[in-house]
Design a protein that fits this description.
Layout (H helix, E strand, L loop, with lengths): L7 H25 L7 H15 L10 H21 L4 H26 L7 H23 L6 H10 L2
Helix pairs in contact: 1-2, 1-5, 2-3, 3-4, 4-5
Length: 163
């Protein structure tokens, strides 16, 4: 299972593909909302495009997991702030879910590597690699699909309204 780990040379290309995906999501949201008053997807896609495009200037060989964690937490707070002023359920739920999972995985990798000093690959590293990329694809795809395809909104409504 250790052969699932992605080397930094390949992860740069995956990162560029995800950045391109968020940029395309912004342009798609912008172009489809021109004749509509609802601009919430445009603002959310702009936040994600800016957030991921800033990561283009980060050196993948020098950045630590805790910096990536802080980066995602800052984006999480900004989306929560936007959600307060622009109440949008579906897209923001998927973005908050994806960024939360990503930030927790970054924190777990930081603890594994820098706190515990583990430098030998094990199953969690493969899990981290796969889930981070799945969450990025999920966050990009919600802007195009615009449906609750994982049932996250229904799950959130069920958990927070049935008391």
């Amino acid at each position: 299972m250790n052969n699932v780990l992605i080397p930094p040379e390949v992860s740069v290309y995956i990162g560029v593909l995800v950045q391109w995906g968020f940029l395309m999501a912004f342009l798609y949201s912008f172009s489809t909302s021109i004749n509509y008053a609802d601009k919430k997807p445009v603002w959310l896609s702009l936040v994600m495009a800016i957030s991921y495009c800033f990561s283009f200037f980060l050196d993948v060989y020098e950045i630590s997991y805790i910096e990536l964690f802080c980066y995602d937490v800052a984006t999480l707070f900004f989306i929560l702030f936007l959600r307060y002023y622009l109440p949008e359920k579906r897209i923001s739920t998927y973005l908050l879910f994806g960024l939360s999972i990503n930030s927790l995985l970054f924190l777990a990798m930081h603890i594994d590597v820098f706190v515990h000093g583990n430098y030998e690959p094990w199953w969690f590293w493969s899990f981290y690699t796969v889930v981070i990329n799945i969450m990025d694809v999920t966050m990009v795809s919600i802007f195009f699909i615009k449906k609750d395809f994982l049932g996250l909104v229904r799950l959130k409504n069920f958990l927070f309204t049935n008391k």
